[in-house]
């Protein structure tokens, strides 16, 4: 899969910047009232999402926002604004379920899909599990909903055609995400790494993937607290965008747009 024709003509490295809304759904789903010390998720809807919309627009680049259904119910205008300003909205659970949803999985996937579809008048193209959890049923339901990609798996660093029981699921790509390296959460939740060091780490990852003719997917959260919604942490995303743009042969995609391109050039991703 390291062939020179893997990406569009002249493109050496593809980049997707993803923003997981993770608003009050995150606290409400854990039976916490999203007030006071538990109000970090509300920052996403009030400030963080708009900060990222403005940033991406300023730099003329696409972006993908994954939105839990409950957050779309709390902040319908914010989610409409994401869509109306030309960015991708993907599904991301209902109450940001980070527990085993068992037999409720299909109901939750369909419920979240309906909330976003009704709100935006168009269906999402893809889904990212709010916790990375998936089951043997997940892909079947996503396919049934008309989705063309999942972005939950951590098992590779390039997109690939989804397989179930060894057989390809035609029309369904996996665009893996890296929740422990190309993510803000572990740095700001656990290690309290300063933004300048997080930036240096992401740049190292980018350098390596760029040299491998690769795929760079970055995941941030527009919350306060452990997220990247607040000024200094959002600023390193801008620094990162400038850094990436300083490299020749880079193209930014929405995740859905990249999934479509991969499906149209499926032979490189089997
Ligand atoms: Zn999330």
Poorly predicted regions: none
Number of distinct beta strands: 9
Output the radius of gyration.
17 Å
Give the amount of beta strand, in percent: 15-25%
For the sheet with most strands, the description reads: 5 strands, parallel
Helix and strand composition category: alpha/beta
What's the CATH class label?
Alpha Beta
Number of domains as seen in the coordinates: 1
The total of helices stands at 10
Roughly how much helix do the residues carry, as a percent range? Answer: 40-55%
> What global shape is seen?
globular
> Hetero groups bound?
zinc ion
Q: Overall pLDDT, averaged?
A: 96
CATH superfamily: Glycoside hydrolase/deacetylase
- The sequence of SSEs as H and E is EHHEHHEHEHEEEHHEHEH
The name of the CATH topology is TIM Barrel
What's the gist of this structure?
The mean pLDDT is 96. The protein is α/β, with parallel strands linked by helices and 270 residues long.
Could you explain the architecture of this structure?
With 270 residues, this protein is an alpha/beta fold. The chain has one domain: Glycoside hydrolase/deacetylase (TIM Barrel, Alpha-Beta Barrel), CATH 3.20.20. Helix content is 40%, strand content 16%. The longest helix is centred in the first third of the chain and has 20 residues. Zinc ion (ZN) binds next to loops.
């Amino acid at each position: 899969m390291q062939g020179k024709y893997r990406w569009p003509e002249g493109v050496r490295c593809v980049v997707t910047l993803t923003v997981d809304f993770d608003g009050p759904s995150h606290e409400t789903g854990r039976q916490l009232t999203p007030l006071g010390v538990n109000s970090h998720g509300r920052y996403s809807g009030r400030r963080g999402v708009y900060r990222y919309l403005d940033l991406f627009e300023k730099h003329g680049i696409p972006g993908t926002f994954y939105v839990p259904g409950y957050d779309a119910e709390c902040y319908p205008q914010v989610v409409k604004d994401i869509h109306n300003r030309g960015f991708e909205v993907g599904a991301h659970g209902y109450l940001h379920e980070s527990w085993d949803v068992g037999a409720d999985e299909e109901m939750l996937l369909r419920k979240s899909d309906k909330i976003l579809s009704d709100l935006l008048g168009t269906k999402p193209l893809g889904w990212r599990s709010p916790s990375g959890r998936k089951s043997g049923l997940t892909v079947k339901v996503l396919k049934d909903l008309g989705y063309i990609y999942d972005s939950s798996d951590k098992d590779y660093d390039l997109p690939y055609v989804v397989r179930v029981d060894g057989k390809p699921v035609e029309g369904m790509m996996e665009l893996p995400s890296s929740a422990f390296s190309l993510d803000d959460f572990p740095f700001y939740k656990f290690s309290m790494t300063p933004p300048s060091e997080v930036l240096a780490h992401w740049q190292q990852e980018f350098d390596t993937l760029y040299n491998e003719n690769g795929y760079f997917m970055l995941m941030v959260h527009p919350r306060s607290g452990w997220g990247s919604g607040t000024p200094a942490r959002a600023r390193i995303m801008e620094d990162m965008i400038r850094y990436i743009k300083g490299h020749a042969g880079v193209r930014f995609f929405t995740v859905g747009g990249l999934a479509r391109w991969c499906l149209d050039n499926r032979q490189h991703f089997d």
